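seq as requested:
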Amino acid sequence: MKVDNRHIVHFDLDSFFVSVERLLNSRLRGVPVIVGGMSDRGVVAACSYEARSFGVHSAMPMKLARRLCPHAFYIRGDMDVYSRYSRMVTQIIEESAPLYEKASIDEHYLDLTGMDRFFGCLKWSHELRNKIMKETGLPISFGLSINKTVSKIATGEAKPNGEKQVDYNEVRPFLWPLSIRKIPMIGPSTYKLLRSMGIDRIKTLADMPSEMLYHALGKNGIEIWRRANGIDPTPITPYTEQKSISSERTFEQDTGDMKMLMAQVVKMTEKLAYQLRATEKLTGCISVKIKYSDFETRTLQKTVPYTSFDHLLIPVAKELLTRLYTRRIMVRLVGVRLSHLVSGAPQLDLFDDTPRQVQLYRALDNVRHRFGAGAVGRAV
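struct tokens:
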């Protein structure tokens, strides 16, 4: 099937963190709300549309947000609560959608190709959206079009709490008047470079020779040009709770040394967490496995707030190992697995007033990126 015959819908929860807080506290409805670190050193994780009207936006320093909107309600984020609501939405989609991808904690892509012949993709999406809002109480928007890029941009235009369909013959008329900021893969630095070249609207970008963008931006330039022309063959990657990364260690000699087993679990968790950060992923579940000398294997897992920081995962891994190692016989293998993976940046710096911790992670990850994942590790 041709990619331009697809029907892709992008669902995005509106101001997700703020919406969850409003469910928990009705006094927050209709007023400026800012979620993030509570000290001046923190940054804004999310803000309501009322706060945005004062110039506040995500990733803004909290100190500046307080100057712009001093009368807002300021709330420290709780990833445990947000993760729970995210899973509620995913479960509803999983029960209904033929093929879906959980792109982040608050975004899902669904492939509805073929459903238009039987039910109607727009009607189906509308009814799913109503079901999500009814069962969770959360506002959600969607964009329906021929591929991920156009659908995501359509969702942005539908917000807040709206729906938008862009058919195949409407793609270019829809995209071209919009700012190049709307193209998902254009970040601040790329935007500045393109603006320095006199490019502001998507149409200008689409009309340029692709070779010119290649010389300016490399391979990314070609991809940006394609998306400006509404071309994006990226498939929907089926989401499954089994998606995971793992690490195991089989010992040359069976051991009963708990300190050594704990050190191995800490080391594996640390490396896996680094892999998450390197690929901009978050985990929602950690598992620990041990295999005894008689080959009996035991595994325990625990759901956690979405994260990619090992200082949050290691205590859980150690707890699971302690609960697992109940037999007084030797162990031949120990392993750690991180699953329920979704795309997303680490949230620690948004909620915790610990800039030194964030800087430490960045410094350690830079060393690992340069010299290998095992170049530096925690002392046990």
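The radius of gyration is 23 Å.
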